[in-house]
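Ticket #4471: structure export looks truncated?
Reporter: QA, pipeline team
Priority: medium

Steps to reproduce: submit the single chain below to the structure queue and open the exported record.
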Amino acid sequence: MVAGHQVAFFLREIGSADPARRAAAAKGLSRVPGHVAELTALAGDPAPQVRAAAALGLGRQGEAAPIGPLVALCSDPGAEVRRRAVNALDRLGATGPAVAAAFVQRVGDGELRSRPVVLDWLLRFGVPVPAGALAPLLADPDPLIWGPARLLLRLLPEADAVFADLVRTGPDEVRRRALHMLARPQAGIPGMGPDADPETREAAWRRLWDPEPRVTEALLAALEAETEPHARNVLFGALAAHRVPEAVAPAAAWLADPECGPGAAEVLAGAGTAEAVDLLRRFVTGPERQGTGPRGATAWGLGADLLRRFPARAGQQEAELRGAAVRALGAAGGVPEAELIFGLLDDPAEPVRLGAVAGLGAFFQRFDGSPRGGLERWRAGRVPGLPLPPPADDPAVRELARRSAERLTRLLTRDVEHADACHNALWHIPEVRPLLPALLGHPEGRVRSTALHLAERFGEMDFAGRLRLLDDAHHAVRQGAALKFLLLVEQENLTSAEQDTLRPHLERGQDDPDHYVRTFTARALAHLDRAG
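Actual output as written to the record:
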């Protein structure tokens, strides 16, 4: 605690002719509440050391401190003054347009030691910063500089154009960082977070699917110049995420490439044009299965040459390429293409069969009531050559869904090793509902576990059935039942009678050999105890 005589001394010293004594007095007053006026006056002192001390002092005065003088000091000629002002504003929790503008000006301030504070503040409040100020920061060795800088770039609609240009022209470390961001094209886009409201999320997806022309141009230019397979696949992923119709021809040129073929197929699926769908269909079914872009035949020839060098892998590699194309065909094609995929569920090559399962899942995902279907119809009205998908209640779609549910459930019971693939496809097919009771009674545990997840998804599981599965012989079934009960308890969606019935089952779960069952049941019991 500062004594009264010390305060009187500090007040006399702020009028000293010696800047060092004025600065020391300002630091002393900063520890005493109620001296905002004196410190604000010192913020205009001719000596930079005094202005720095005044900024420090205002930051310690709490909510009584005025923001305006500190904002002005952020542009001070003295680097230490700017640092103190930035730190003071951050300490005070200052916000608003004036603070944002001052911090944006400091992004390129190489002398500012507290620049990470500036970048963190701008990122926290989602403040747009010009790309020209952020791009050079990706070359900074300090992760506290380049880390938030790349995330701030993602706030901008032209972000992926900047990353693509850096992939093409930047030094190795900058190129690596830019590739890392292009490999995660959704990360950091405003509105993509799980807490965003539906309208904001839809706007974010529209931004992703309708990129600025500069983004498309930069990605295509980087792809044309790229020689390294990993980087090419990253660029393919970004083009697929942005659903770029102009990428059809360059993607077709790599469709038969052993390393880049799956990425090229995803680009064609994302483009979704009639030409892209035709290319995928011909690759899946045609005898030569080659792309038709400017280097299509050459790309397939090179791929075949590579496969011939490793004859033990040649057939497997070709099957994997076809499987990737089948999956992509489901994401882009219409009912005729889905019927083709349905027929490939019996293909002798396992990668093709699994591609068909995934392809059916990708097809029916567009009709399961999620925002994806509406977004595809919106995009079809904007992109020339993009077929309009049928409505979800189209009889042909629903009839195919019924047949697909039957075939996929049979496949699930025959090929338990790939239960996850069947689960992911059936997740989008509500016609599986009448088949779930038989699956829940199947002797194979993974089949029952898959059926439980699907029954919860489609609202086909009641309290008694879930309670029975809490004592199932298979650990994955018990895990699913225990997790659902935990969610129901936390959401207070059980009656008092149901809670009383559930409690002894949860208590027995404490002796379960499975760690997750013990954890879920313990948390549910603790919540019941707190609620009681």
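Status: closed, not a bug. The export was complete when the record was re-opened. Leaving a note from the reviewer for reference: Residues 258 and 318 are 8 Å apart (CA to CA).
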